[in-house]
Design goal:
The chain is globular. By secondary structure, it is α+β, with helices and mostly antiparallel strands. A hairpin with a 2-residue loop joins strand 18 and strand 19. It has two domains: 175 residues, OB fold (Dihydrolipoamide Acetyltransferase, E2P) (Beta Barrel), CATH 2.40.50.100; 216 residues, Chloramphenicol acetyltransferase-like domain (Chloramphenicol Acetyltransferase). The chain contains eight helices and 19 strands.
Length: 397
């Protein structure tokens, strides 16, 4: 018996998505967490994951189809186990005029949309590293290679943008993607301000000891291994919500439900405009090194439009920082159905009284916007103080 796998909602305000490519075929077995395809939305190209062991019965939405949220993409048949199954992916073969690879035994496996995009970017497919099943080259491999070449000043030039096969009614037909994204954001934020009773709290504290510790820790590390201050912010918030779970969850069906995990969404500005806030999963249990790597990775993929559906759909609280833009404080708008957003301002040197002495200290202002239906100001104040204490003891994060 088959059941539908619907177009997921990849953020408040999303109404539909356009199928870019499939990584599966009818009759293929898939396991929980497998990426089965790519959908194009206002936020960019999002990889779609399967949430249960199953067999693909039918592909309902062909590449290029615009599918409303909730409408079927695939039909799946449940299976008892896929542990011993070998998944065979379908990729188109090289065209007859494609020169043979230097290694005759190597079969170049490329998804159709990746082949098309590589041709547009003038990339040689046999020079790319494939991250798909069996080393297959995917759209994300092509986009990543193009970005790396841009950073190194190598051809081809120009910022790569994922290209979807769309019909005339697609979300980007004659319309700039960033304009569409801003409309989606505006829709979500209008709903948030209309429906959520926000309250705001502000806490300013010294980061002097934290920044000293960070400098000492990074002193003998190569640039690629240096810890990021953003990782400390995420870890401090993630550890704090373990003690204050009313800020880590969702308001749905007129009730608050606590999230099972701690997956803070990190707000990332996109080149050319727009904003995404993908989840950094299990931030409370990951090391600062792992979080730093995750931050670098998700920023890179966000700006290349290569996020996964789970990263877009399941943040449990949002953290936004405009510190590098020089603002003292940022007052966020809660992203429904979440119930809180933490804002972090710039680190600034200020006169500071401590222990009866006045001196100069580097300080930061952290704000909380929270849903009064799920929490109150007293708990919010304790939460912000807990974040401050965590940040001021970075060696314990």
């Amino acid at each position: 018996m088959s059941k539908a796998y619907p177009m997921p909602s990849l953020g408040a305000g999303m109404e539909a998505g356009t199928v870019v490519e499939w990584h599966v075929q009818p009759g293929q077995r898939v396991s929980r967490g497998d990426v089965v395809g790519v959908v194009d939305t206002e936020k960019g190209a999002i990889e779609i994951e399967i949430w249960e062991d199953a067999e693909v019965a039918e592909i309902v939405a062909a590449p290029g189809s615009r599918v409303p949220v909730g409408e079927p993409l695939l039909l799946l048949k449940e299976t008892e186990s896929t542990a011993d199954q070998v998944v065979e992916e379908v990729w188109d073969e090289p065209s007859p005029d494609t020169p043979p690879a230097e290694e005759p035994h190597r079969r170049l496996r490329v998804s159709p949309v990746a082949r098309k995009r590589a041709k547009e970017l003038n990339l040689e497919l046999d020079t790319l590293h494939g991250s798909g099943p069996g080393g297959a080259i995917t759209l994300s491999d092509v986009e990543t290679a193009a970005q790396e070449m841009d950073r190194e000043g190598l051809p081809p030039s120009g910022a790569p943008e994922p290209v979807a096969e769309q019909d005339e009614s697609g979300p980007d037909s004659g319309v700039d993607r960033h304009a569409a994204m801003r409309r989606a954001i505006a829709t979500a934020m209008t709903r948030s301000k209309r429906e959520i009773p926000h309250y705001y709290l502000v806490h300013t504290f010294s980061l002097e000891s934290t920044l000293h510790w960070l400098g000492q820790t990074n002193r003998d590390r190569s640039p690629s291994r240096r810890l990021l201050l953003a990782a400390l912010y995420l870890k401090a918030v993630a550890r704090a919500v373990k003690n204050f779970p009313e800020f880590n969850g969702f308001w749905e069906d007129e009730a608050f439900s606590r999230a099972e995990g701690v997956h803070p969404g990190m707000a990332i500005s996109l080149r050319g405009g727009g904003l995404v806030a993908p989840a950094i999963h299990d931030a409370d249990t990951r090391s600062l090194e792992a979080l730093t790597e995750a931050v670098r990775d998700v920023v890179h993929r966000s700006r290349a439009g290569l996020l996964r559906g789970s990263e877009v759909a399941d943040p449990t609280i949002t953290v936004t920082s405009l510190g590098e833009r020089g603002v003292d404080a940022v007052f966020g708008v809660i992203y429904p159905p979440q119930v809180a957003i933490v804002g972090i301002g710039s680190v600034a040197e200020r006169p500071w009284a401590e222990g009866g002495m006045v001196g100069s200290r580097r300080v930061v202002t952290v704000t909380l916007a929270a849903d009064h239906r799920a929490s109150d100001g007293h708990r919010g104040a304790l939460f912000l103080e807990h974040v401050a204490q965590r940040l001021q003891s970075p060696e314990d994060l």
